[in-house]
């Protein structure tokens, strides 16, 4: 495979044949991929620390280095064969959780123990809201106590009984062991400051070890020789920072990437390239979204639910799918993706939503909200035009085309929307920390395994970046996480479809272009954003 980023020659060596491979399987030597495979064009990786992951691209890299306490598969079930936890039980039906660890080792040979899980929890509490998952799954505020009876067992006692399925999938899943023996000598400030420093991450327990970060270019990994899971079938794994779909396709054509997302408008061209093949993937567990900023004083009209509903009714999602996604997408009107359908409410399964493409209804809602025709055709209220600027990640044709469709749809009902492209990491920083600098943002959202929304739409939620606050929504989210069963989750998602705290947009179904001798792609990629590099292998051309 590819060696351009390394000085070494690309020499193929015979190795053990994985069960799914043919007899002519060979060592891939070096595999080069872009960030964001199966999700969309990526961005530079800025952190490898699981505590500070503010983008899926960072998460994909960090999770190559640190193994999950529980590995959740594409069907939102725990794959115990890939998890450090051997079992999780709740003897009292949702308040107490007993976790048993299986034997596992850090890359320096030190055993992974319950003390490492407790250390992770200690750091989460120390960082508070600087921890990227703060509040999701009830972590850390829901926990009354966490103790370790011995090296293989952890007991978690909550302040109250909750929906155990939610707490395991969204809460316990965050307690990825971190190496106390290697990190305890650093202060919390030092750990924060060195989150992108490869020299800090000399000890890990995942399939790969980080050996180099070339800022703005690539991150390089090698297999962890003491990894307790499956064997790797390569010597080097490189995430090359390619930030646009067009660049990804060109890099695969030029043999500089082993696989890359196919831009929707170039699908036919990519499918006919010699020496390549197309692999279609299930949609990521999420959606595209237009985030209206309720916290910015210049766009407070978004606080009126009728305005948000009107925007949702004005947008033709079918046109977005046909035009921007070339038919490869799924309409989305609520916060629970349709694949897999296990968490969909009965009304969502039936395709019954309180919003949908209906420009006449959109105009009526805006009139009821007090807007009237302005001299230039744009609605106004109290002398203020119904206009805003939408920021989108730069250099991403998919989102440019989505924005163009939305712009035309909104103009048809009297709303003016300007579009501004911004580099992705700058856009992310503004969204999280600078609420007065943006009015609306178009990005993709990827969800936790249990789609309950406490971090997204609950008042003060860590990922609630647009200032949305609604007491009924808070109560419904609490019901979805506190009550057993799925009825609470159903009620929450149906109300969110009505509220449109963000404007839900279609979820795309990506395909990737792959060098013909690289295999295992579908098993490598998980719709929840996790990569399983041991599934990749090569065959002799």
Q: Any idea what the shape is?
A: globular
Strand content: 15-25%
CATH first level of the largest domain: Alpha Beta
Q: Tell me the Rg in angstroms.
A: 24 Å
* Regions with little confidence, pLDDT below 50 for 5+ residues: 1-23
Could you please say which CATH topology of the largest domain applies here? Dipeptide-binding Protein, domain 3
- Give the averaged pLDDT, no decimals: 91
Percent in helix? 25-40%
CATH superfamily of the largest domain: Dipeptide-binding Protein, Domain 3
Number of helices: 16
Order of strands across the main sheet = 18-17-19-12-20
Work out the number of β strands. Answer: 24
Largest sheet: 5 strands, mixed
Total individual domains: 3
Helix/strand-derived category reads alpha+beta
Q: Can you tell me the CATH architecture of the largest domain?
A: Roll
- Separation of the first and last Cα atoms: 10 Å
Please characterize this protein's 3D structure.
It is built from 16 helices and 24 strands. A hairpin with a 2-residue loop joins β5 (143-150) and β6 (153-158). α8 runs antiparallel to α11. The model is unreliable at 1-23 (pLDDT under 50). With 541 residues, it is α+β, with helices and mostly antiparallel strands. It folds into 3 domains: 25-66 and 206-281 and 510-539, 3-Layer(aba) Sandwich (D-Maltodextrin-Binding Protein, domain 2), CATH 3.40.190; 80-183, Dipeptide-binding Protein, domain 1; 286-508, Dipeptide-binding Protein, domain 3 (Roll). It has helices at 56-65, 114-127, 164-171, 180-183, 188-193, 245-253, 267-271, 305-314, 317-323, 346-349, 359-368, 397-412, 424-433, 471-482, 487-499, 521-524, and strands at residues 25-26, 30-33, 85-89, 96-101, 143-150, 153-158, 208-214, 218-223, 236-240, 259-261, 276-280, 286-292, 329-330, 372-373, 379-381, 384-385, 387-393, 416-422, 440-446, 503-505, 507-508, 511-515, 518-519, 537-539. It starts with 24 loop residues before the first strand and ends with a strand.
């Amino acid at each position: 495979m590819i060696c351009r980023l390394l000085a070494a020659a690309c020499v193929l060596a015979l190795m053990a044949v994985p069960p799914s491979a043919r007899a002519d399987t060979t060592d891939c030597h070096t595999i080069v991929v872009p960030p964001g495979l199966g999700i969309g064009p990526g961005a530079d990786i800025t952190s490898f620390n699981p505590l500070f992951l503010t983008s899926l691209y960072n998460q994909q890299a960090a999770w190559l280095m640190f193994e999950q306490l529980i590995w959740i598969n594409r069907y939102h079930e725990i794959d115990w064969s890939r998890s450090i936890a051997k079992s999780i039980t709740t003897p009292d039906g949702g308040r107490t959780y007993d976790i048993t660890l299986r034997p596992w080792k850090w890359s320096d040979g030190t055993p992974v123990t319950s003390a490492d899980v407790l250390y992770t929890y200690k750091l989460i509490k120390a960082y508070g809201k600087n921890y990227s998952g703060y509040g999701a799954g009830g972590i850390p505020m829901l926990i009354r106590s966490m103790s370790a009876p011995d090296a293989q067992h952890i007991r978690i006692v909550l302040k109250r009984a909750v929906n155990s399925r939610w707490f395991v999938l969204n809460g316990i899943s965050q307690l990825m062991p971190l190496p106390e023996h290697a990190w305890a000598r650093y202060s919390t400030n030092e750990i924060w400051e060195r989150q992108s420093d490869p020299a800090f991450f000399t000890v890990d327990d995942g399939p790969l070890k980080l050996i180099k970060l070339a800022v703005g270019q690539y991150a390089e990994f090698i297999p962890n020789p003491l990894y307790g899971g499956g064997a790797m079938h390569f010597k080097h794994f490189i995430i090359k920072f390619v930030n646009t779909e067009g660049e990804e396709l060109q890099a695969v054509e030029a043999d500089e990437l082993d696989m890359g997302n196919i831009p929707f408008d170039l699908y036919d061209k990519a499918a006919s390239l010699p020496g390549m093949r197309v692999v279609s993937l299930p949609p990521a567990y999420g959606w595209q979204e237009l985030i209206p900023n309720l916290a910015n004083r210049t766009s407070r009209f978004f606080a009126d639910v009728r305005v948000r509903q009107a925007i949702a009714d004005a947008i033709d999602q079918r046109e977005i799918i046909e035009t921007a996604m070339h038919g490869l997408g799924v309409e989305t009107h609520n916060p629970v993706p349709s694949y897999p359908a296990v968490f969909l409410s009965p009304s969502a399964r039936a395709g019954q939503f309180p919003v949908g493409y209906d420009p006449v209804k959109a105009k009526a809602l805006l009139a009821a909200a007090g807007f009237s025709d302005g001299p230039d055709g744009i609605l106004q209220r109290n002398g203020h035009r119904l206009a805003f600027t939408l920021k989108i990640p730069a250099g991403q044709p998919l989102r440019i085309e989505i924005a163009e469709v939305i712009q035309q749809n909104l103009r048809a009902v009297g709303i003016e929307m300007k579009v501004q492209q911004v580099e992705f990491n700058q856009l992310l920083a503004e969204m999280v920390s600078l609420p007065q600098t943006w009015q609306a943002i178009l990005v993709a959202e990827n969800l936790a395994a249990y789609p309950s929304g406490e971090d997204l739409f609950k008042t003060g939620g860590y990922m609630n970046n647009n200032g949305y606050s609604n007491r009924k929504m808070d109560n419904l989210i609490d019901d979805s996480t506190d009550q057993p069963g799925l009825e609470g989750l159903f009620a929450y998602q149906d109300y969110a479809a009505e509220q449109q705290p963000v404007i839900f947009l279609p979820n795309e179904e990506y395909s990737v272009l792959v060098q013909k001798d690289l295999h295992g792609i579908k098993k490598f990629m998980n719709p929840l954003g996790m990569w399983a590099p041991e599934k990749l292998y090569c065959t002799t051309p």
